[in-house]
Amino acid sequence: MSRIAYVNGAYVPHREAQVHVEDRGYQFADAVYEVIAVRGGGLVDEAGHLARLKRSLAELRIRAPMRDTALRHVIREMVARNGVRDGIVYMQVSRGVARRDHPFPAAATKPAIVMTARRMPRFDLRAPVTGIKILTVPDIRWQRCDIKSVSLLPNILAKQQAREAGAYEAWQVDADGRVTEGASTNAWIVTKAGELVTRSASNAILNGITRLALIAIAAKLGVRLVERSFTVAEAKEAREAFITSATSFVLPVVQVDDRVIGNGEPGSISLQLREAYADHMDEAARRSA
Ligand code: PMP
């Protein structure tokens, strides 16, 4: 099945999909995006992702490109036309196409929307998993990390630095030595006292939809959660650690910089949450039809 992209109202072959050279997303990163996981043909936490998209757009004063019902229809069309059983849908909305100039273009300028869908091998979250390594790096981003903007240069540099150091993810660290979040994931630890800790939502992090789902899951399972920041030193002393995102799900961390976490194996609470998240994904996807 050949891939199809959605570009401003048209479904086009993926390799022919193009945006205008003066799209403000292309020239200024004046755009926002969302990634929704597809599980068994259903969408995982679509409502949460669309609510966050709306919020990102509003914070940047970019108009919604279409009504919610239309957007939900296009997302489903993309899943169907690309034959996605498991994978992701990516959507990006820019302030539109206009002659290059920093101030916002005329109010009548239409926002531009593109969407892609990608098939991925089905991931078994109940299968044994080896944990990942984290590299800590300074957080050099701006003060509105709560907006899911396509302006991702610091995140890309952090991720690349991690990969070149043999780590899977980078944890960005603020001026006070506290972890904000990963380059493309939220950061969690389980302290020696058995407390689950993740940074509270603020302008310093993206409020992950997976993060929100896991907060609800932890409450249901009776896992004690504290939303607060934690230092790199505290992370290195933690009993367990893991990362979350729509595409990484719940992924155990077994090393932070040169320090092995716990006994070097994924922790029991991390694995319990990972399994519960698998159930949540299946359930949420089933409901999305
Ligand atoms: N933080 C950042 C910086 C991200 O890019 C992402 C994923 N896009 C996340 C956190 C996790 O968000 P979600 O759970 O909604 O995928």
Kindly report the average pLDDT value.
Answer: 97
Encode the helix/strand succession as letters.
EEHEEHHEEEHEEEEHEHEEEH
Number of discrete helical segments: 7
The 3D shape can be described as globular
Task: Give every kind of bound small molecule, once each.
Answer: 4'-deoxy-4'-aminopyridoxal-5'-phosphate
For the CA atoms, what is the radius of gyration?
Answer: 19 Å
Distance between the termini: 22 Å
- Please state roughly what percent of the residues sit in beta strands, choosing from under 5%, 5-15%, 15-25%, 25-35%, 35-45% or over 45%: 25-35%
> Which structural category fits the helices and strands?
alpha+beta
Quantity of strands, as a count: 15
Percent range of helical residues: 25-40%
Low-pLDDT residue intervals, each spanning 5 or more residues: none
Largest sheet: 9 strands, mixed
SSE map:
Elements: E1 4-7, E2 10-13, H1 24-28, E3 31-39, E4 42-43, H2 46-59, H3 68-81, E5 87-94, E6 112-119, E7 132-138, H4 153-164, E8 169-173, E9 179-182, E10 186-190, E11 196-198, H5 209-221, E12 225-227, H6 232-237, E13 240-245, E14 249-256, E15 259-260, H7 268-287
Parallel strand pairs: 7-8, 7-14, 11-12
Antiparallel strand pairs: 1-2, 1-6, 3-4, 3-5, 5-6, 8-9, 10-11, 10-13, 13-14, 14-15
The chain binds 4'-deoxy-4'-aminopyridoxal-5'-phosphate (PMP).
What does this entry look like structurally?
By secondary structure, this protein is α+β, with helices and mostly antiparallel strands. The strands form two sheets. Strands 7, 8, 9, 10, 11, 12, 13, 14 and 15 form a nine-stranded mixed β-sheet that branches. Strand 10 and strand 11 form a beta hairpin. Helix 5 crosses helix 7. The chain is globular and about 55 Å long. The two termini are 22 Å apart. The chain binds 4'-deoxy-4'-aminopyridoxal-5'-phosphate.
